[in-house]
Write a structure and sequence with these properties.
Number of domains: 2
Shape: elongated
Distance between the termini: 70 Å
Structural class: mainly alpha
Largest sheet: 2 strands, antiparallel
Number of strands: 4
Strand order of the largest sheet: 1-2
Amino acid sequence: MNSKSQIILYQTPDGQAKIQVKLENETVWLTQKQMAELFGTTKQNVSLHLKNIFNEGELEEDSVVKYFLTTAIDRKTYRTLFYNLDAIISIGYRINSYRGTQFRIWATRTLKEYMIKGFVMDDERLSQGKTGNRFNYYDELLERVRAIRASEKNLYEKVKEIFATSVDYNSKTKEAVKFFATVQNKFHYAITGYTAAELIINRASGRQKNLGMTNWKDRSIVKSDAVIAKNYMLERELRQLYLLVEQFLSFAELQIERERPMYMSDWKDALDEFLRLNRLELLQGKGLVSHQKMERFVKKELRKYYRYL
């Protein structure tokens, strides 16, 4: 089975939970692994919930499961168990995860509208003439990516907004903050051989002109400038960084154009492959210098710098 059916559960820029389903032959089939990815949980957890769903009589197993032949990475064909939309919805109501919560918020809002009005309509889809099986999630993403590329924002703001299009991205979670710090460091390391914190500690000096910085925001150098690694990059490094980011933005647009749902883990893996393709060094681990240590160092060097002015 080379299924083109998809379920995308995502959060809109205004914080609304939305879900879109791309049907194939009037239904959708997902494996346990795909359901785990959809709801941000483990395959084992999905399997346990399915077992309970069938044991409790919520669904009849024979009516919601089906074997299909699938081709794996090793190019061998295997019989794989798939589950239909009924099973997927039941799992969504049981999963205790952020994405499970997103699903229930959407489902509750939709059910409430049905109970009050007696019907549910996709107003956006109808108003734009999007009928049939048109999957407008990717249209929305493409508009966002193209707007990002055309904007006057700095490179890292563009990168951050691209990664914010991840299906499972939520800026309020620790995972999202850690995710962006990781990918930002991967870009830094690929160009300079240092993480952001390492680059600053190696190049910032209170005894050097302009603290060792090559660019900053206003006339006077302040701490908010001094803790930005890009401000210490050489012209050649900045040029290479710009080229690298532009390449990656094109790559990102292509993934969305081809309707590939991208999770944070997918973007991180894709970035690694992208850097390898460009024959650049990959960052292994978190680096040798913490952000806190870098900030203490900058504070000390700034005091020296102000004394020598």
